[in-house]
Amino acid sequence: MAKKNAFYAQSGGVTAVINASACGVIETARKNKDKMGKVYAGRNGIIGALTEDLIDTTKESAKSIAALRYTPSGAFGSCRYKLKGLEQNKREYERLIEVFEAHNIGYFFYNGGGDSADTCHKVSQISEAMGYPIQAIHVPKTVDNDLPITDNCPGFGSVAKYVAVSIREAAFDVASMAKTSTKIFVLEVMGRHAGWIAAAGGLAAEKDGDAPHIILFPEVQFDEAKFLAKVDNSVKKYGYCALVVSEGVRNKEGQFLAEAGGKDAFGHAQLGGVAPVIAELIKSNLGYKYHWAVADYLQRAARHIASKTDVEQAYAVGKAAVQFALKGKNAVMPAIVRKSSKPYKWAIGEADLSKVANVEKFMPENFITKDGFHITQKCREYLEPLIRGEDYPPYKNGLPQYVTLKNEAVKKKLKTFTI
Amino acid sequence: MAKKNAFYAQSGGVTAVINASACGVIETARKNKDKMGKVYAGRNGIIGALTEDLIDTTKESAKSIAALRYTPSGAFGSCRYKLKGLEQNKREYERLIEVFEAHNIGYFFYNGGGDSADTCHKVSQISEAMGYPIQAIHVPKTVDNDLPITDNCPGFGSVAKYVAVSIREAAFDVASMAKTSTKIFVLEVMGRHAGWIAAAGGLAAEKDGDAPHIILFPEVQFDEAKFLAKVDNSVKKYGYCALVVSEGVRNKEGQFLAEAGGKDAFGHAQLGGVAPVIAELIKSNLGYKYHWAVADYLQRAARHIASKTDVEQAYAVGKAAVQFALKGKNAVMPAIVRKSSKPYKWAIGEADLSKVANVEKFMPENFITKDGFHITQKCREYLEPLIRGEDYPPYKNGLPQYVTLKNEAVKKKLKTFTI
Prior knowledge:
The structure is a homodimer. Chain A is of the alpha/beta class. Chain A folds into 2 domains: about 5-140 and about 305-360 and about 390-400, Rossmann fold; about 155-300, Phosphofructokinase domain (Rossmann fold, 3-Layer(aba) Sandwich). Chain A has helices at about 20-30, 45-50, 60-65, 90-100, 115-130, 155-175, 195-200, 225-240, 255-260, 275-285, 295-300, 310-325, 355, 375-385; strands spanning about 5-10, 35-40, 55, 105-110, 135-140, 185-190, 215, 240-245, 290-295, 330-340, 345-350, 395, 400. In chain A, helix 5 links the parallel strand 4 (about 105-110) and strand 5 (about 135-140). In chain A, helix 1 (about 20-30) packs parallel to helix 12 (about 310-325). Chain A starts with a strand and ends in a 19-residue tail after the last strand. At the A-B interface, helix 6, helix 10, strand 9, helix 11 and strand 13 of A face helix 6, helix 10, strand 9, helix 11 and strand 13 of B.
């Protein structure tokens, strides 16, 4: 059988290290040129496959591909586009197969979170049903750290490190200012459903009195009175209070606090995130001067402070995906398996996509302290290795030198398809 | 004459490198033990002098003092406390002299911005008037970069680097997502009066199409129609638009945009900063999906990504302050003198405090492009050397190892003073 080409696409919110996975896929494919053909990337994720907008990665130099390892974001473009179920949307799945067939693609590498694991699984099913052989391998990626089976998700460790470093630095600042000025600092971080990212902020608190003093998790219902007492206690005891707040914190009614804050004069929902709501709540009840920050994309794009562990794992799952494909595997995902925490040892294992798709992993209960405001020692032991190590990008004139690829299109062979 | 002790205090908002100046002062004083006595630091800035709450820095190990070079924030505490004029507030100036006399202090090193330069100047005047000799040396520090005479201010270069790196990273992220999702990213940065910090974001735009596409300066009156056209043009041309917005942007009426946004349901002023106001303005007029971030203290505390140039200059002004004192100088400030931009060469010069106090340096007109939305080549040439070089702190278990000093108090000799 003639060797088949591969298709690779990035899906959903990008991370500081998803390109390291791309680098792992492409470099490993290039090392196996005798067995695997070209790697085509989908421009803007799966949309590139549907619209036959493929990028020929063989046009990129070895140097450019190597630079993906230290370049944040999605080098080929990503998208938020979830394919519906096979029954409702056979047309799109059939189109994928049509495109794959037209370009002699036999490997489908899909780099994303839970939704893309599901899509990947469905592609392997439709391939079987339609009789066109596709090996579908999912490459895990999500800052939310909510994929099952894998011990952690590439992308998470770097956000975790960014948040832990940032709250430590900002708290040092607030501690300096607290005597006459700011006593409260609120850092809002990502996490609509799971508190993994907020939890990572807790790593900065290595000994009593260290910031953050309070973490608010989406998993813990917000109790205003208990919260305010805790803030006040921190200010009285340490002179200030530094908080990491997950964007997904909800009140008793189940509403996001960020949205429960009210409307502005024009009837718009409160524009700010949850950080200003929490800060103002403290001010109006306790009178303390505050500052707040919303990290937003900065946290997941912060390749300059990426975790070395995370970069290595992101590369490893990309590499393993190609190796799995060459071994004939299908409908699987390389998973990170923790062998031990002290010393930290990990290896690449294999997860069935049927067990990954549509399962969300939340923080275990014993990772959150009983009062609901911090992480436990058990959680620290889990998180700490994931932020370990620095892996600095190269700099020129004070700025990190990230690569922008040429992204040359493969000539189309099919009719236009409307999505 | 018996050798005199020195007093050192940190003033106003702290920075990523103000402790590097403290390190320069203390290490240089220690090297000149034959000529200069102990360095006492004010706990929480000048308040420590007024309340006779002095920290004995000789109790700190050489290793701890060396660690100040890479520790952000103010290690002795800072304060926002401006001494009034000599006439209105003779009581406080006299108290300073009283404390200095009680502790045999002959050198006053005040590390801060414009206000503290003014205080420092007044201390030298009152010393003369009261006949107790004090050499008052101001050590420049401000992220706002608004001190006159000195080419730039220690603390600014590191914020500048943080902002330039952050907008580059976030823009890479947005570019990946723009096809189906976020097209607008707004980063709010500090700068109530001067646009230096926002301008630094412009360094990330090295070639056509690079982010940021738009910078909003406090110096440029906000023109909504022109602004929206520029945003729309950027999205149509590049697929997305990344913006750096100074917190101090004002509308035609001279109001801060952040405050002109309206009130919420409880009658509070809009809680968010200017970033969400700008983002929502774009959404409601052009329909583009947005994300925004407010860096707040993260930007000025970000020692993990400090500029090497900035760290070196912060240390150098601290060192020079002690050298000036030992040369018998008074009412002066070490200033950074630019010898050339290409290659970048600088030296330490000397500025009269009478010329520094109460003078604010704004962005020159020829640093902002004619349309008001970006920086000129001239501005790039000025800014670029200031962010050059990386100077990473040491890490342990994934986190930067910043020092917390013992800060042991000097025994009080005087009666309590109420401020």
